[in-house]
Amino acid sequence: MYQIIGPLNVNVGDTDTYSVPEQPAGVANIPNIQNFDIKAYPDPVTDILQLEVNNATNSNASLHIVICDNLGRTCIDQVMPADANSDITRSIAISSLAKGIYFLTVSDNNTLLQEQTIVKQ
User: Fold this and answer.
1) CATH fourth-level superfamily of 34-120
2) What is the pLDDT of residues 63-114, one digit of tens each?
3) Half-sphere exposure of 49 (CA within 13 A, CB side)
């Protein structure tokens, strides 16, 4: 195993130089993440998924909610409009979905805010 300390520049050929940052990208380093507190419940869910967004006053943009199946197909695609209220709750009917594992993503202006796995019973 090798350990890299500090920034690294790699020369490929005569003209290409690639830089590796000293600090790796991670959740703490993703820019523009708002101070949202997002909860999806219950899990497992049977008919109605509750999506609760707290501290939404940090953004005046709508939230984009997508639920995909395990093959990546979009099953539900909704927009939660911006609201002056800092706490928003949305009920999402998923009774038409087959039992299985689904992936919930919540984004704001193309910035991923939350990804979560949900189980439909």
Assistant:
1) Macroglobulin (MG2) domain (2.60.40.1930)
2) 889 999 999 999 999 988 766 666 778 899 999 999 999 999 988 877 888 8
3) 27
